[in-house]
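Practice problem 4.
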C-alpha cells in the first residue's frame, strides 16, 4: 500500500484569502457612519428649528393677550432676552428672539404637536415631543431645512420668491451655501423671465465647488453653537494659528500698553457671521485695538471689512469713557508682509495723530510678521522632513 504523507495546511486568514470581502465590509461601515453623521446633523438642526418656531409661537400668543400689543411685545422680548441670555448664553438676544417671532408668523402652518398626536392617542407637549424618538422624526418632517436656511429665507421680502426658494431647496437638496448663492443671484427673477425654465432650474440643481457642507460643518454652524451654548472653536490653518500666537506675544512684549482681550471673537451683523482675529486694549490710548490677519495680499475689501468691525465695536463694545477703536490689518503674503492702520474712522485729525504717535510703527509690525512667517515655515519643513539614512535618524 502506498503511503501518502498528509500535509496539514495552515488556515488562511479571511483577510488574506478574500480581500474583496473586507473591502465590501469596510465600505459598508464607512457609508453607515457617513449616513449616521449626516442624520445626526439633520436631527440637531430640526430640533433647534422646531424649538425656535415654538418660542416664536409663544411670544406671538402672549403678545396677542396684552392690552397695548406693540409696546407690550417689545418689552416682552427685551425682558425675555435679558433672562434667557443670562441662563442660556448668547443665542437669545433681542434680534434672535425677534427672528423667532417672525419665523412663526411666516410659517404658521407648521403643526408639530398635531403631527405627533396623529401617531399616538396620548396628548403631547412640545417638551415630550422633543424628548421622544417618534417626536424627533415628526419634527424632522416638519422642518426639513436647517435653521440657518430659514433665517436666510426670512430675508426674502417677496412671499412668492420665498416659497419658490424653499421649494427648490427641498427639491434639489440645496445646502445653505447654495441657497444663499441662488438668492443673491436672483434665481427666482431670472427663472420667471427665462424662456427655458427647465434648463435653468436643472443647472441650479448642480452644486458648485464649496457648496457642499460636511456633517462637521453643519454641527459647527454658528446657530447650532449658539443654541447649545458651546465654545466656538475655530479651525484655523496651522500658519494662521501660529502667526496669531506669535503676534500676540510680540505685541505684549512691546510694553504694558497692550492688554489682551480675546481672539477669534465671533460677531453677527444682520444675518452674516464674522470673526475678529485679535482684540487688545491700549491703556494709554484708552481704546480697543481690532486686529485682522489675512494670509495673502491686501485689498480694499479688507479695509471695508475692517470698518465694518470698527463700527460694530463702537456700537456694541466701546464703553462711554473710552476712545473710538482703531483697526490693524495684517497681510502675510510671502515676501511682502504689510500692516495697515484704519485711522480714518476717528472723529478728528488730532486724535489720529495721537494714535500714530503711540501705536507701533506699521513697518516694524510688518517686519515681525514676515519674520514669524519665515521661521514657522522653516520649522514646518524641518519637522516634516523624512529621514533617508541612518545618520538622518
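Answer key:
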Amino acid at each position: 500500500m502506498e503511503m501518502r504523507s498528509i500535509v496539514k495546511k495552515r488556515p488562511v486568514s479571511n483577510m488574506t484569502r478574500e480581500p474583496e470581502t473586507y473591502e465590501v465590509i469596510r465600505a459598508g461601515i464607512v457609508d453607515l457612519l457617513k449616513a449616521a453623521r449626516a442624520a445626526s446633523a439633520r436631527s440637531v438642526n430640526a430640533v433647534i428649528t422646531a424649538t425656535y418656531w415654538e418660542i416664536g409661537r409663544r411670544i406671538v400668543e402672549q403678545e396677542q393677550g396684552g392690552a397695548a400689543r406693540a409696546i407690550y411685545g417689545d418689552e416682552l422680548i427685551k425682558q425675555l432676552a435679558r433672562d434667557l441670555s443670562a441662563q442660556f448664553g448668547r443665542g437669545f438676544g433681542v434680534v434672535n428672539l425677534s427672528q423667532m417671532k417672525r419665523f412663526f408668523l411666516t410659517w404658521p402652518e407648521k403643526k408639530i404637536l398635531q403631527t405627533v398626536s396623529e401617531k399616538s392617542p396620548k396628548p403631547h407637549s412640545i417638551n415630550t415631543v422633543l424628548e421622544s424618538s417618534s417626536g424627533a422624526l415628526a419634527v424632522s418632517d416638519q422642518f426639513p431645512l436647517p435653521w440657518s436656511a430659514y433665517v436666510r429665507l426670512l430675508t426674502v421680502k417677496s412671499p412668492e420668491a420665498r416659497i419658490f426658494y424653499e421649494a427648490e431647496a427641498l427639491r434639489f437638496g440645496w445646502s445653505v451655501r447654495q441657497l444663499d448663492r441662488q438668492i443673491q443671484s436672483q434665481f427666482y427673477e431670472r427663472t420667471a423671465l427665462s424662456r427655458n425654465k427647465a434648463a435653468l432650474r436643472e443647472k441650479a440643481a448642480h452644486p458648485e465647488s464649496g457648496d457642499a457642507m460636511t456633517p462637521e460643518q453643519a454641527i459647527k454652524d454658528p446657530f447650532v453653537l449658539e443654541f447649545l451654548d458651546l465654545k466656538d472653536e475655530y479651525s484655523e490653518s496651522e500658519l494662521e494659528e501660529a502667526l496669531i500666537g506669535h503676534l500676540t506675544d510680540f505685541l505684549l512684549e512691546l510694553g504694558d500698553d497692550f492688554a489682551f482681550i480675546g481672539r477669534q471673537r465671533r460677531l453677527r451683523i444682520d444675518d452674516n457671521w464674522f470673526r475678529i482675529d485679535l482684540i487688545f486694549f491700549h491703556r494709554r490710548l484708552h481704546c480697543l485695538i481690532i486686529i485682522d490677519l489675512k494670509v495673502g495680499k491686501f485689498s480694499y475689501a479688507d479695509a471695508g471689512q475692517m470698518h465694518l468691525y470698527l463700527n460694530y465695536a463702537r456700537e456694541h463694545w466701546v464703553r462711554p469713557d473710552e476712545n473710538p477703536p482703531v483697526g490693524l490689518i495684517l497681510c502675510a503674503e510671502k515676501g511682502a508682509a504689510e500692516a495697515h492702520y484704519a485711522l480714518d474712522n476717528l472723529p478728528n485729525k488730532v486724535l489720529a495723530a495721537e494714535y500714530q504717535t503711540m501705536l507701533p510703527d506699521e513697518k516694524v509690525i510688518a517686519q515681525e510678521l514676515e519674520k514669524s512667517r519665515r521661521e514657522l515655515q522653516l520649522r514646518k519643513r524641518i519637522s516634516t522632513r523624512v529621514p533617508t539614512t541612518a545618520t538622518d535618524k
